[in-house]
Structures are given as C-alpha cells and as structure tokens.
Amino acid sequence: MARYKDAVCRLCRREGMKLFLKGPKCFTDKCPVEKRNFAPGQHGKDRKAKVVGYGLQLREKQKARRIYGVLERQFRRHFEEASRSGGSTGDKLIEILESRLDNVVYRMGFASNRNKARQLVNHGHFRVNGRKVSIPSAMVKVGDVVSVKDLSRELAYFKDLPDEMASRDMASWVEVDVRNLSGKMTRLPGPKEAQPILSEQLIVEHYSRRI
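Given the sequence above, the corresponding structure tokens read:
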C-alpha cells in the first residue's frame, strides 16, 4: 500500500496552515508552522506571489488530499464517485472523505490524528457491525457501529485510551461510548463539518477544467 513517508510537518508548511497531521503537537509551540510559517525548501521564504486561478484550485485539492492522507489516484476515484451522485459534487465529496473508516476512527477520538487512525485500521484493531475491517478506505454508513476488537482491548494503547479520549473533540455526527470503546455514525457529515474546513467548490473546479 502506497503512503506518504516523509515529514508531515512539511505538508502543513507548504499549505501555509495547520492540517493537524501530528495530533497533540499541532496544539503546542513546537509546531513548525508556528516557528517557520513559510514553504519548505531552499527558496521557501521567497514564495510570496499571490496564488490565483488554477494555482488556488490545485492548492485546495492538495490540501484535501493531505488532510485525509489520500493519494491522487484514490482521491480522483472519490471525486468521480461524488460526481455520479446526482447531487452537489462538492458536498458529496466531503461526505465520502469524512465517511472513510480511518477518518471515522479519528473523528470518534480513537486516534490523535488520521495517520494513527489509518495505522490502527490497517492492523485490524476495529470491527464494523461486529465484523473485522482492515481497509482504511472502507465506507461507514449511518447506523454502523465501529468498535475496538476484543483482543485489542488488552493492549496498553487501548487500556489508556478512555482517559485520552476525554480531552478530544469528537464529531457531532457520531455517538461514542468511551467506556466500551465503541461508536456509532448517527448521520451523514455535512460539507462544513470537515476538519479543517475546505472549499470543496475549488476542488470541483480543479477537476472540471481537466475534463
């Protein structure tokens, strides 16, 4: 499975904003965006030109990909699925991205960031409606129950998890039982409930001009 392996803080600096890819570190003064809020690389400080048009659309698409940890081919598939939905392509795209199992695990508070959530799902620590699912891109539907596997509850990470979850913000479209390490998706997420908020229309315009 292909994945980004370089320093994720460089991605935040490239987008000029916090993408919350490192969990708790993003909320401290150790965050590189706080110290060096300019693009990485030798000429990062010199990139001061205002981004407009295609460049603005490209940056928004790249930002969305990096937030959700999705490579270009899979992101394009999500967009094509959204465009076939018959409704607002942008709204549907955010709904698809937020409904991915790795994102739902993160939004339920089981992980401090999406990268960690993706790793936990890959290692088979979660069940959806009682069935083991180890595919991060699996879609979670309204009414689905996501829970930690019984054997995984004996691991130190999950034993300490309830205390850590108490301080985490959880999405308004999920219900979480912290004590039992389970949660349910109660409704579909709206376009303005993405975290961080994205301009989905710019992403639609980016792909539309390539058709």
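The mean pLDDT is 85. Try to locate this feature in the token string yourself.
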